[in-house]
Amino acid sequence: MIISSIRTEEDYQNALDRLEVIFDAKKGTGEGDESEILTILIEKYEEKHYPIPFEKTNLKSNV
Asked: Which of 6, 42, 44, 59 could, after both became Cys, cross-link 11 (CB 3.0–4.6 A)?
């Protein structure tokens, strides 16, 4: 298992491709650990490069 930071779009796509292959790996195995780490790295990359805009809404009821 060789894991490195996701810095580029190519790194991101490679990580997604690898995660697709090992997605159902059992926890506690090498591939399971790799899957967990890749998921974290992918999430962090997406938070930075593909943020989901948050729209504040009025939570008051209009009743």
From this structure: 6
Residues 6+ apart with CB under 8 A from 39: 19
DSSP string covering 5-42: ---SHHHHHHHHHHHHHHTTPPTTSHHHHHHHHHHHHH
Per residue in 5-39, pLDDT (tens digit) is 999 999 999 999 999 999 999 999 999 999 999 99
b/e code 31-63 from CB counts within 10 Å (16+ = b): beebbeebeebbeebeeeeeeeeeeeeeeeeee
